[in-house]
UniProtKB/TrEMBL annotation:
It comes from the Bacteria. Residues 90-174 form the Methylated-DNA-[protein]-cysteine S-methyltransferase DNA binding domain. This is Methylated-DNA--protein-cysteine methyltransferase. Keywords: DNA damage, Methyltransferase, Transferase. InterPro entries: MethylDNA_cys_MeTrfase_DNA-bd (IPR014048), MethylDNA_cys_MeTrfase_DNAb (IPR036217), MGMT_N_sf (IPR036631), WH-like_DNA-bd_sf (IPR036388). GO terms for biological process: DNA repair; methylation. It comes from Collimonas fungivorans (strain Ter331).
């Protein structure tokens, strides 16, 4: 397993990554989704601001990922079936497994996830922010005890990332955050 600590979502703030970084970019109601594939594996899914333009898939897996993301954006009950690169630490995988078990339309707090895996809420939040595969591993379903919490290592109340989190939760039937 590769241990990579660089957070892909944080790097995208302000649209700094060029479209060439991605093997596909698809439009989304909140902006766009960047897809990066390599050697038959998905290496990264990234929430992108609306300044990014669509990019046709450059390989079959990027096309498959784009179609699956499109299906999720139409139907929140869609289940992903993509080969994910073995990124992250053992602890991050433990958190991501717990997050992946949260049903659509439900949320858990960072503290609840921490209790499930025997950890601390802050560590859970850090693992959520380091998620290379948002939507597939639905870290948007984890919130703070007193509200929406942060998202992708961002916590500006009206910032792009929290707008994405709110859209995803509303799309999945969670209201009031």
């Amino acid at each position: 397993m590769n241990i990579i600590s660089d957070n892909p979502l944080k790097r995208v703030t302000g649209g700094q990554l060029p479209a060439q970084h991605f093997t596909a970019v698809i439009a989304a109601p909140f902006g766009a989704m960047g897809i990066r594939t390599e050697a038959g594996l998905v290496y990264e899914l990234v929430y992108l601001p609306p300044t990014f333009h669509e990019k046709d898939a450059t390989d079959a897996l990027a096309d498959r990922a784009a179609k699956q993301i499109g299906r999720y954006l139409e139907q929140p009950d869609f289940r992903f079936d993509l080969p994910l690169a073995p990124l992250g630490t053992a602890f991050q995988h433990k958190v991501w497994k717990a997050i992946a078990a949260i049903p659509r339309g439900e949320v858990l707090t960072y503290g609840q996830v921490a209790k499930l895996i025997g950890s601390a809420p802050r560590a859970v939040g850090q693992a959520c922010g380091a998620n290379w595969f948002p939507l597939v591993i639905p870290c948007h379903r984890v919130t703070a005890a007193g509200g929406i919490g942060g998202f992708s290592h961002h916590d500006e109340a009206d910032g792009f990332h929290l707008r994405v989190k709110r859209w995803l939760l509303e799309h999945e039937g969670v209201a009031g955050l």
